């Protein structure tokens, strides 16, 4: 099986060692010590901003912030560096969604290539010239129902665990139908010329899109696209006068992204089968494709370089194996919002029951756990507060972005760590000034 991280959300009990590992991985981002991740990273950020990325608007702020956040998410998922750099520059030539061409694809490709390498630049360019919405949504994710994805995830896991994978299995036939081994034929959005996207590259596009959507989607897009059923099918296109940024309510994007993650897992499993058939090696570590650094081998661009890039399974949605029901998503979000925006008539003691219900319906986000942790802490229920705080922090760190985007990811992480520090001390303020005095993360 492909490499993946143990998800903290797999059980109701936190994995303390895993949580500490997540904190260590996130610390360079939390301390803005990005040079420790990649000595070229500060220079890359300067290059993007010099080209105007920090002056361009994006859904939650600036284009520069969004690009860096996508890089952060991919890095926290332990994705290979060329794919992280692809995420960092993923729309700099503009794409089929919007015009954010801070670099000219006709004249600046070599400049970008010198900064990010051959593999990353090739991915960036391809991503910017294909009809992204058609490729990712219409021709791939929307070809599956939620039921089909759950069934195929189960069947593929059973098949791989048995060690007896057959060519004619239903899940494999479906993958080969929507994403043939020979690749996807599409068209260049500007020239109309045919473009072949290898299936492995398509999987990388899907992976990056999961990170991309996770960072930028919230309630504002639901209003724009009339996303009332929670499926984010982009059916509405007339609400051009929705005032930005909206009310900040968490968005109903997680059903769609969980489907993307499920399709990605199926693509990775099929690719893994083919790679093992092509290159049998009894000494190779199970679940990992032997990797050559494509950045050091520009000739791989013409010789199947994409076969050498490891496809990593992110920890979200329990290792990309669960599809969130859209109705459960809506109910969970609405319960959460009711707790958050309670008025003077709201019985605060109902918060526990409501947040527990919210978590049952959508166990894949951290913020409800964080709120429940504070509820317990303020009532002296420190063990329960610590448990919920650890679960919430783990999910926030696994995502690398937040679901409730009224506060930054870093802010959510810091507040959650304050809760955990106080939970370990078995103390919590009993005054308003006491709450304001909090802040130190130990």
TrEMBL record:
Top-rank taxon: Eukaryota
UniProt xrefs under InterPro entries: DUF6817
Entries under Pfam families matching the protein: DUF6817 (PF20680)
Domain DUF6817: 47-132
Protein name stated in the entry: DUF6817 domain-containing protein
Source organism: Tagetes erecta (African marigold)
